[in-house]
């Protein structure tokens, strides 16, 4: 796992991994994150919903940047069950897709979760079409498909700790 400087950044190849609580984001970072999230989850997916939510208040934002451009993003939050650590809002802007940033940001996010919540299972709400992608990290489906904001989703769990 990489180490981070006091600003929450770690240089990786030609991009920087940023790990920041919402309160630690600069106004410019916060606006860029919200712009990218709205582009992907509201505009691209043609899904009008309240994209910015109360989870953002205490979220840990994980994002790659190159200069001032966001290359990939996730946020770490508690699952709706208030027990399991989770992550979501995984995105790679259109112009950066197909370059491996999705896999890199999820890998970095899982590493950070394992440091913050050692041995704990991770539960996510994945868009159903990404089930195979998340399965490649060891996640298993633990629910039937359901609609969230008219988009098919499935709950998935990554088991990390000892189980009875």
Automatic annotation (TrEMBL):
Keyword Transferase among record annotations: yes
GO MF term (any one): acyltransferase activity, transferring groups other than amino-acyl groups
N-acetyltransferase domain sequence ranges: 20-161
Keywords for this protein: Transferase
Transmembrane segments: none
UniProt xrefs under Pfam families: Acetyltransf_10 (PF13673)
SUPFAM superfamilies associated with the record: Acyl-CoA N-acyltransferases (Nat)
Keyword Transferase: yes
Signal peptide: none
Source organism of the structure: Ligilactobacillus pobuzihii
Protein name as annotated: Acetyltransferase
Superkingdom assignment: Bacteria
């Amino acid at each position: 796992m990489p180490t981070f400087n006091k600003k929450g950044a770690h240089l990786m190849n030609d991009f920087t991994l940023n790990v920041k609580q919402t309160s630690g984001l600069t106004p410019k970072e916060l606006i860029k994150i919200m712009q990218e999230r709205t582009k992907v989850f509201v505009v691209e997916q043609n899904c009008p919903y309240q994209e910015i939510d109360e989870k953002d208040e205490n979220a840990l934002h994980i994002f790659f940047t190159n200069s001032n451009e966001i290359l990939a993003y996730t946020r770490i939050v508690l699952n709706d069950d208030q027990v399991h650590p989770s992550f979501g809002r995984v995105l790679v802007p259109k112009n950066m897709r197909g370059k491996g940033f999705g896999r890199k940001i999820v890998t970095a996010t899982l590493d950070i979760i394992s440091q913050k919540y050692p041995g704990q299972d991770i539960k996510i709400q994945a868009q159903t079409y990404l089930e195979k992608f998340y399965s490649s990290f060891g996640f298993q489906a633990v629910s039937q498909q359901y609609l969230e904001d008219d988009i098919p989703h499935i709950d998935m769990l990554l088991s990390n700790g000892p189980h009875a």
